[in-house]
Amino acid sequence: MIVKGRTLIDWEEYMKRLIIAGIVLLPVVLWGAAPGEQLSYSGDLEELVVKRCGDCHSTKEPKANLVLVKGEGYGNLVARPSVQVPEAQLVVTGNLEASYLWKKLMGETEIGKGMPRTMFGSKRLPEKELDLFRRWIEDGAKP
């Protein structure tokens, strides 16, 4: 124990609290929301969607007529039919396997190709980004 002025500092207790705080905050830093916390499109996914999808799905000649620019992506994804498979909705709230977007991200579509696309074909997103999409859809695809 170290006495500093009139304050008694227990470094062992301080380090324990610091480690616990790090464990609690790490998921927030890495994934934007702690496990179990509901994700929202605007708060957790929109920036990622614009970054990963914006080149092909901008307002100028968007692929599949799907515009995913800031402020428009959510309304164009949730409960909207796919152009490639009109009987499939892009995002079915709470139902990952029925969501055509998820199939596109996983490269599991019968028509079309996996997303996102590159010059050399489709490129699977990193697992932590896929997890954000999975959690968002399963938790009800909140705006």
The helix/strand series, from N terminus to C terminus, equals EEHHHHEEH
Low-confidence stretches: 24-31
Described by the principal axes of the CA atoms, the overall outline is: globular
H/I helix tally: 5
End-to-end Cα distance: 50 Å
Q: What is the helix fraction of residues, given as a range? A: 40-55%
Give the C-alpha Rg: 21 Å
Structural class, from helix and strand content? mainly alpha
Number of strands: 4
Binned strand content: 5-15%
User: pLDDT average, as an integer?
Assistant: 84
Largest sheet, described in full?
2 strands, antiparallel
Q: Strands of the largest sheet, in order across it?
A: 1-2
Number of domains: 2
